[in-house]
Amino acid sequence: MKKANDKTAAESVTIKTEVVCPNDTNPMGILQGGRLVEWMDIAAAVCAQTHADRICVTASINEVAFKAAAYSGDIITIRATITRAFNSSMEILVEAHARKVLKAKKYLISKAYFTFVALDKKGKVTKVISMKPVTASEKEEYEGALIRRETAAARKLSTKPVLA
Ligand SMILES: CC(C)(COP(=O)(O)OP(=O)(O)OC[C@H]1O[C@@H](n2cnc3c(N)ncnc32)[C@H](O)[C@@H]1OP(=O)(O)O)[C@@H](O)C(=O)NCCC(=O)NCCS
Fold first, then answer.
1. Model pTM?
2. Does ligand 1 lie within 6 Å of residue 58's CB atom?
3. Ligand 1 neighbourhood includes 55 CB (under 6 angstroms)
4. Edge-first strand listing for the sheet containing 55-66
């Protein structure tokens, strides 16, 4: 049952639209992966901050997949939605679709799970409001978020510098 202070994913869904310009592409006119991830990160941050009603920082970007290329002139639509809130962290699912200008057909170009952490006014990690899944796919992602969190913890990336 939804508690009075739970929020739903629908309350913080964030859509961002971009047009691929020449300076977003490689010499073949293909959208650079780093630029796309930057746009996805911004959409995810807005989503996390809307849910948490706090400033949030990117803690990790997981399972980034680039499934298809987009080209100069294409229109990119990025959708970010919260899958689960833990204590101070939230998992945000981001999907990016591309379409040709004047064409309606969209295709998936990238999908990733971001983790954001909420900060209080002093910049300290702070608790966030819980999130209640409503639809079948939200419930599936909600359960998956816990598995992804546990899997990430199990293969925890060392933060010790190697190349310095
Ligand atoms: C993210 C950050 C605030 C975490 O601080 P920390 O002192 O390690 O925090 P804690 O150990 O108390 O963990 C706080 C939460 O962050 C999560 N977390 C920390 N590091 C994480 C990582 N690499 N991946 C995913 N989650 C992470 C923890 O699981 C915990 O979640 P929970 O409260 O929901 O259980 C800190 O590492 C940081 O400021 N990183 C830089 C962020 C940044 O500059 N991002 C780019 C610009 S926005």
1. 0.94
2. yes
3. no
4. 14-19, 75-85, 89-99, 107-119, 55-66
